[in-house]
């Protein structure tokens, strides 16, 4: 990847994280039963600690939060088009996609690790 490509990727990730933080702060108090943005980030990082590497490419689950292809398409379709499977996404983007899913499905995609992290 060229320096220009890396710079663009870093810019996209920074923008996504900023937008996500602002959106989560705006909605943190409005969702019944939803964690605060900081608690959600810590919860997902705990789940990651029990899952694979951010670069895990072992099919059928990819990336640090072990997303399957259906999960990737459902919650991160634009990143699938841009980079392919989650193992090729920056960690911040994997977290953004997991947070999107969380606000619709809770921790259901990670039942065992969420339990191990005290999130269920």
Any key phrases for this structure?
120 residues; mainly alpha; Lysozyme; 0% strand
Beta-strand content: under 5%
- Tell me the number of structural domains: 1
Largest sheet: none
What quaternary form is this?
Answer: single chain
How many separate helices?
Answer: 5
**Average pLDDT level:** 86
Strand tally: 0
**Inertia-based shape:** globular
> What is the CATH topology classification name?
Lysozyme
Descriptive notes:
The chain is mainly alpha-helical. The chain has a single domain, classed as Lysozyme (Orthogonal Bundle). Helices cover 62% and strands 0% of the residues. The protein is built from 5 helices and no strands. Helix 3 packs antiparallel against helix 4.
At a glance:
The protein has 120 residues and is mainly alpha-helical. It has helices at residues 3-27, 37-50, 69-83, 91-105, 111-116.
SSE arrangement:
Blueprint lengths: L2 H25 L9 H14 L18 H15 L7 H15 L5 H6 L4
Helix pairs in contact: 3-4
